[in-house]
Amino acid sequence: MTAAAKVVIRRPNPARFAAEVDAVTELFLDARRAALPKLKARRTDAETCEWMREVVFPQRSIRIAEQDGEIVGFAARDGAWLEHLYVKVGFTGRGIGSELLQVVMSEAKLVTPVLRLYAFQCNEGARRFYERHGFAAVAFGDGSDNEEREPDVRYERRLR
Q1: Is residue 130 within 8 Å of residue 119, measured between CB atoms?
Q2: pTM for this structure?
């Protein structure tokens, strides 16, 4: 029996920008659909890819989790806000999300004393994940402030 390949957490490769945006977009869409099948999509898949290409990748601090040359997770942070952390369907439960989160927290503590994020109230898996990693729920919203119009919860964790 061979050992599982090591996961590498890295920044995007500018030479592979288009391919990485496409892979991350597919991962993002698949993971959201698997975790939140009833969530209302406010963008088409093509619009989501354009948003990743034009907004998320160029304007956020991105970390990619890669295993054997395959993108298996990603995280996007903007200052004190963790905006996205997704693991590829079929790769959850292997510590990939935890590794991504640790890298993001290490980077974030250089610029902010607190890391914040939103999760949908109905996303019990994400909520358990963040609570297990020391995040505390500090506010509950009715969804009027997010594009999906889904009730959410704001989490915070002190970093220093």
Answers
A1: yes
A2: 0.93
